[in-house]
């Protein structure tokens, strides 16, 4: 049986002195405790006595049970500083606060969280609803797309489910409508299309079950595992599904590097980044 993994040994949280600072620190230290990780709190800006007093008071209030915490102060461009820090500190998981809904300007120009998600060298957790009191993570939805990095995303999702005590994981297999290769014109072609759909569902389910048995067996105890086939636009379909079933966490593969033209025409994970259905964990393969 495969040995247990610890994918998130070091976590970085980039913080600003916003009204949500206290609640973000509480949520982040809670996550780091569950993952048994070292936590680096990074402020992109000058260190002042007032700022230091604020962050010290919050940390003294938080009960983090011997959690290793380091606070860093680095002035400069937020994106460059965070990207460089993730590399130099060998960060496994970057946690960022994110807006649930972006307006058109934010989508085309790109928020700091969106830009970091595309460029950073590690996995990213986007939090849209940090909470002072813990809200249990019960249902995790995971991308089951047939792609090279999907086995890693599924494996890490089982680790997270165990760490957070989640009760169910649903692996969503998004299948493009064009894979059916049948134009429905009458009852005969409709029947043929339905047969093709069933074959595709069986193929995808077998592929996902193989990943679970080979890479995740050690984590499956006490977790209900479901698979769900969806025919539709990749990214949009799984985001809509996660919202409908009220998932507590959505886990996706990291997006590939995109060109400006890709951002003009929404696709894949860009659908989710512009309208987050829940907290989003984006898994990126370590370099």
UniProtKB/TrEMBL annotation:
Pfam families: Usp. It comes from the Bacteria. InterPro entries: Rossmann-like_a/b/a_fold, UspA. Belongs to the universal stress protein A family. Gene3D superfamilies: HUPs. Signal peptide: none annotated. PANTHER family: STRESS RESPONSE PROTEIN NHAX, UNIVERSAL STRESS PROTEIN UP12. Residues 52-126 form the UspA domain. This is UspA domain-containing protein.
